[in-house]
Amino acid sequence: MTENKPLIIGDSCADWMDSYYKEHDLFRFRFTYLLDGEPKLNNGTEEEADHFYHCIENGSDCSTSQLNVHEYISAFEELIQQGRPIIYICFSSGLSSSHQNAVSAAQQVMEEHPGADITVIDSLAASVGEGLVLDMAVRMAEAGKSKEEIIDWMQENVLKLHLIYTVDELKYLKKGGRCTSAAAFFGDMLNIKPVMTMSRDGRLMA
């Protein structure tokens, strides 16, 4: 690897399995979540995913947690030792404060280490959408594209993604404040599956 080859990094919300990161030799920020009150670190394995969804189907309660600025700083300071420009494809700023925390951390690290080069890209997406953006950055880097070419492509094309989501039940939409208790109750009773998409600022919308 040459020193100027961009170092692409992702996070758990891109929903790629651990095998993907190993195949491409990628670093990822692993987010934590609470499963029935017990903190878990997202490892991205198929076994973990199977267990998680089994628990959810059987009534377990789940909530997520964002990375703080200190956690980002610690990782960035280690990664810049490779001497390569860093491009972090981040979970949507419209769904979490993780993006702003990453931007603040990157700015602090670059101020303290003048040779550091960190760019945080807001994917404005989650799950498969974020994963597609990350994968394109990885493919471009592996094809020899420069940091500037990758960033330019991201800025030009991120908003061209059209993402559509649906859910089996409305419990977590109610919990996240995206629908009322009454709407969740009657929606589940009538077996309504809402179709949602992402707004241009990276928020879920029905």
- Range of helix content: 40-55%
String of helices and strands: EHEEEHEHEHEHHEHHEE
Low-confidence stretches are none
Q: State the helix count.
A: 8
Major sheet: arrangement of strands: 2-1-6-7
Oligomer: single chain
User: Radius of gyration over alpha carbons?
Assistant: 18 Å
Task: For the record, give the distance between the C-alpha atoms at the N and C termini, rounded to a whole number.
Answer: 44 Å
Number of strands: 10
% residues in beta strands? 15-25%
What is the general shape?
globular
Layout of helices and strands:
Elements: E1 7-11, H1 18-23, E2 27-29, E3 32-35, E4 38-41, H2 46-57, E5 62-65, H3 69-79, E6 86-90, H4 98-112, E7 118-122, H5 127-142, H6 147-157, E8 164-166, H7 171-175, H8 181-189, E9 195-198, E10 204-205
Brief overview:
The chain is built from eight helices and ten strands. Helices cover 41% and strands 19% of the residues.
List keywords for this structure.
10 strands; 206 residues; 4-stranded parallel beta sheet; 8 helices
Question: Can you characterise this structure?
Answer:
With 206 residues, this protein is α/β, with parallel strands linked by helices. It is built from 8 helices and 10 strands. Strand 9 (195-198) and strand 10 form a beta hairpin. The model has no long low-confidence stretch (mean pLDDT 89).
